[in-house]
Amino acid sequence: MLGPEFDLQTTATALSRINFVNSFVYWGLGSGTTVDFTAYANLAGTDVNQLVNALDVLMLHGALSASSRASILAAVNAVPAGTSQNLHRAKAAIYLIASSSQYQVEY
Known about the structure:
Blueprint: H1 11-27, H2 38-46, H3 48-60, H4 66-78, H5 86-98, H6 101-104
Helix pairs in contact: 1-5, 2-3, 2-5, 3-5, 4-5
């Protein structure tokens, strides 16, 4: 049996995608184009659960698994809290969801 769809996700494309997500989240899209994550930074400062819930709905249509949620919450909570760190916490959550295997699946 042939499965051409399996040629879409290879080791090389998986790493390339993760590198793209890293660049997008932490450095912008080039040519001075950046994304404003302020709304998510505000959530990271008030309630990390709300942050992950909002990103889950936005990026995964509410399909984030319990084990992935727990891992993301642990990783985000490992980033020190504080006004100057909220953006880093939000970006960590966005990066982890966007680079996850669950995000690779089309719903």
